[in-house]
Structures are given as structure tokens and as C-alpha cells.
């Protein structure tokens, strides 16, 4: 039994044993070269779709087994458990070759927004199929002219009786090609400053007028898409929060996204690197040991921050730890992991095809997904400075200006 398990209450220790037994019965243990749980870059759209459906089936298995939404309230389709139980399950499942993949991130993002801002009808309609994976979601926020300056977005939603009509373009929409639903933010009032005229809507991706075009990356992967919306009709009852008040659920999504990225519990990279160092006979090198110790310490700090945040969110309180700090910590860790792997493996880290080298290559490439996706490091630092530390705000020339009067390129 590990040191962590020793400190657990008898109830939590029992939960861990039950979870482990359930996992043994429903999944295969990781064997080193993992077929499924290792994130790979699929270059073939059919292979990507098959992988997505496999992740969806695992989410369904979790749901049926009582391990989806562990710390969500029962009335929201969850298990009513504790955040400690969530963490225990995440630690246990990390040893098995299974994953819900991208579904986990959208469950966290739109699930949290619906729990805090959705109507009871929206919660009853959308949360159970979200948790079971029956309905997959994508995030339709970024636009060609609005990434970091998200509130400057131009996609329009115009009211027509009981519906809104959407027109515009979104970009960088992860896995939109596989999603049944999207959560989108659109401009409903151009006559007020940018944050005040945005509405948050739930859009059926199978609606007439939606075109999803995959963006092929340099390595052939097709993770992202452009989404074009032409006269797409969305019922008014699919507005989350207030009309023109969509910035509030948007911030909830962004905080949940930071928390998700920061709190992703995978196998400890420090442990993995220690194994590689031992295999290569570098585990007595003081420089290597120092790097591994730093990574181990930072992993523990990330885990502590993540648990503290989850506990506060579960109690409906403002977390004492900022999501921005957690995400920045994670993004910087990914850089350190990639650098340490490269230091240990040398040229093999970029050119070889053995499992350790492939893992190092993924770490090197994927670090950008954490330092850009969900808000870049620079923007996170601005937010931490202004919101968490109370430093003077950046100069904002568009602060009290109606969105339609803000000059844009
Ligand atoms: C892996 C991944 C997944 C993603 N998935 C989605 C998704 O599913 N849905 C979606 O809507 N979007 C998604 N995105 C898009 C992501 O949200 C944007 O890329 C991100 O917000 C940055 O916007 P941008 O790319 O337009 O860069 P820009 O905003 O153009 O920024 C360019 C550079 O300028 C810097 N910069 C900008 N403003 C400031 C400032 N005020 N102060 C200091 N520096 C600044 C930035 O840090 C950056 O280095 C994803 C991105 C990645 C990498």
C-alpha cells in the first residue's frame, strides 16, 4: 500500500479497493505500449472516428458502473460522492488502458456551466446524456479574429420569435466533427460594450446551416475544425443564463477548462522519467536527480491545488486557488517534462520509434496544447495579475465603447 493509501479513511480505502476491483473486471491494465489510453495523432479520419467512439463506449461503461460524475450531485445525474473519491478513481484508472479522451474535457466544461447556470429543464435534458457519452459536445468559442480577446467575437445571433438565428465562423473547435452538440457564444447586442452583448447557446450540430471543416495539422492530425454557421436556428430555451449575459457562463466554462487541464491525472511523468533514467543508467547523475525531484514536487503541488479547487467547487465556494495558476503550473510542467525526456534520451527523443521515444515526442508536441488551449500562458498571467493579485488592469481602449464602434481589422 502506498503512502497516500495509508493516510486514507477506511471509507476511502474501501472505495479504492472497490474501484480497483471494478476496473480489473472492465478494463485491461496498461502494459507499457498502450494502444488506447496513450494520446496519439490520428491522421486517418476513420481511425479518429473509431477512436472517438471507443472513448464514448468507455464513458458509457463508466456511467453504467456508477463511476461517471463521481462528485456531481445526484440530482444532476452524478454519484453524489466526494472529490476525494473522484481523485481516488482517477488515480486507479490511470493504471488501465482506457480513456474517455476528449469527452472528459467537455463533460467538465459544459457540465459545470449547466450545473451553475442552466435551468432545471436544461439540466434534466442535457446532463444525463452528457455524462453517459450518448451526446458528445464541442466548444464553439474562438473565431479567426477573437482568441485571446474572446469577448470581441463577431458571430451573430439575431432573435426571431422563439428562436435565434446564428451566422458567423468559429475556429480551432476540437473534435467538432464528432460532436452532436456544441456550446456557442454569439453577439446578440452590438450596441453595448463587448462583454455585455454576448449570449451563450446550446446548438445541435446536426442543424441545417452548420458546416464543419477539419483543419489538417502539419503532422497530418485532424483534431481541430473550422465551423461555419449560416442561418442556423436555435430555440430560445437553449440559451444558458441570461440573453446578453453569456459572459458569466463563458467564464465558468473557462475556469472549468483551466481546472480540467490543470487537474488531469495521468501516470506521474516524474515516475516515468525516473524509470527511463534507471534504464539508461542515469539515475545517479545529480543533475538528473535534481530535475526529477523538482518534477515530483511540482506534481504534488498540482495535485494539492487541484483537490483544493475541486473541494471548493463541490461546496459551491470560490476556490482559494486560482484556475489560472493551476493551468500555468501544468503548462510549465509539460515544458519541463519534455526537456527532461530530451536530456535523458538525446536524439532518440525526436527521431526514434521505441515506446519511450514516442512518449517523449508526444510530450514535446503536446505541451503547446496546454500552453495555448484554454487561454495562452500570457493571457493567464494577465488574469492572475489583475484578478487574483489585484494589480492595475491593462489599458483597455474598448472598455466603455459599444462593440460595433470598436475598430477591428
Ligand atoms: C489544443 C487546443 C485546443 C483548442 N480547442 C478549442 C476549442 O475546442 N474551441 C475553441 O473555441 N477554441 C479552441 N482552441 C483555441 C484557443 O482557445 C485559442 O487558440 C487561444 O485562446 C488563443 O487564441 P488565438 O489562437 O486566436 O491566439 P491570439 O489571441 O491571436 O494570440 C497570439 C499571441 O498573442 C498573445 N497575446 C494575445 N493577447 C495578449 C495580451 N493581452 N497580452 C499578452 N499577450 C497576448 C498570445 O499569448 C499569443 O502568444 C484550442 C486551442 C488549442 C491549442
If you had to describe this structure to a student in words, what would you say it looks like?
With 409 residues, the chain is α+β, with helices and mostly antiparallel strands. The chain has three domains: 123 residues, Butyryl-Coa Dehydrogenase, subunit A, domain 1 (Orthogonal Bundle); 109 residues, Butyryl-CoA Dehydrogenase, subunit A, domain 2, CATH 2.40.110; 121 residues, Butyryl-CoA Dehydrogenase, subunit A, domain 3 (Up-down Bundle), CATH 1.20.140. It is 48% helix and 13% strand. It has 13 helices and eight strands. The strands form two sheets. Strands 1-4-5-8 form a four-stranded mixed β-sheet, with helices on one face. It has a four-stranded antiparallel β-sheet with strand order 2-3-7-6, with no helix packed on it. Helix 9 packs antiparallel against helix 10. The radius of gyration is 22 Å and the shape is globular. 38% of the residues are buried. The N terminus is likely disordered. The structure holds flavin-adenine dinucleotide (FAD). Flavin-adenine dinucleotide binds next to strand 1, helix 12 and helix 13.
Amino acid at each position: 500500500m502506498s503512502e497516500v493509501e495509508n493516510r486514507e479513511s477506511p471509507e476511502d480505502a474501501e472505495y479504492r479497493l472497490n474501484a480497483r476491483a471494478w476496473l480489473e473486471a472492465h478494463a485491461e491494465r496498461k502494459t507499457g505500449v498502450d494502444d488506447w489510453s496513450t494520446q496519439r495523432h490520428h491522421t486517418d479520419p476513420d481511425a479518429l472516428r473509431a477512436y472517438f467512439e471507443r472513448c464514448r463506449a468507455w464513458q458509457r461503461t463508466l456511467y453504467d458502473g456508477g463511476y461517471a460524475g463521481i462528485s456531481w450531485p445526484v440530482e444532476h445525474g452524478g454519484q453524489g460522492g466526494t472529490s476525494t473519491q473522484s481523485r481516488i478513481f482517477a488515480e486507479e484508472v490511470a493504471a488501465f488502458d482506457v480513456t474517455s479522451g476528449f469527452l472528459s474535457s467537455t463533460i467538465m466544461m459544459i457540465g459545470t456551466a449547466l450545473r451553475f447556470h442552466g435551468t432545471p429543464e436544461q439540466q434534466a435534458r442535457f446532463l444525463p446524456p452528457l455524462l453517459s457519452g450518448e451526446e458528445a459536445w464541442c466548444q464553439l468559442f474562438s473565431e479567426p479574429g477573437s482568441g485571446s480577446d474572446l469577448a470581441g467575437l463577431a458571430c451573430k445571433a439575431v432573435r426571431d420569435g422563439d428562436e435565434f438565428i446564428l451566422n458567423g465562423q468559429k475556429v480551432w473547435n476540437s473534435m467538432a466533427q464528432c460532436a452532436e452538440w456544441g456550446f456557442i457564444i454569439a453577439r446578440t447586442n452590438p450596441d453595448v460594450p463587448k462583454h455585455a452583448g454576448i449570449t451563450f447557446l446550446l446548438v445541435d450540430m446536426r442543424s441545417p446551416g452548420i458546416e464543419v471543416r477539419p483543419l489538417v495539422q502539419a503532422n497530418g492530425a485532424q483534431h481541430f475544425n473550422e465551423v461555419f454557421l449560416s442561418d442556423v436556428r436555435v430555440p430560445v430555451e437553449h440559451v444558458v443564463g441570461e440573453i446578453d449575459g453569456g459572459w458569466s457562463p463563458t467564464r465558468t466554462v473557462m475556469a472549468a477548462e483551466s481546472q480540467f487541464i490543470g487537474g488531469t491525472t495521468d501516470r506521474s511523468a516524474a515516475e516515468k522519467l525516473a524509470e527511463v533514467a534507471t534504464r539508461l543508467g542515469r539515475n545517479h547523475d545529480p543533475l538528473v536527480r535534481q530535475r526529477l525531484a523538482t518534477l515530483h514536487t511540482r506534481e504534488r503541488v498540482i495535485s494539492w491545488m487541484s483537490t483544493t479547487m475541486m473541494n471548493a467547487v463541490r461546496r459551491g465556494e470560490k476556490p482559494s486557488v486560482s484556475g489560472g495558476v493551476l493551468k500555468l503550473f501544468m503548462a510549465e510542467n509539460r515544458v519541463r517534462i519534455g526537456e527532461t525526456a530530451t536530456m535523458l534520451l538525446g536524439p532518440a527523443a525526436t527521431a526514434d520509434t521505441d515506446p519511450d521515444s514516442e512518449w517523449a515526442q508526444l510530450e514535446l508536441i503536446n505541451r503547446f496544447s496546454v500552453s495555448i488551449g484554454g487561454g495562452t500562458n500570457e493571457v493567464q498571467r494577465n488574469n492572475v495579475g489583475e484578478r487574483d493579485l489585484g494589480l492595475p488592469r491593462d489599458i483597455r481602449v474598448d472598455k466603455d465603447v459599444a462593440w460595433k464602434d470598436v475598430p477591428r481589422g
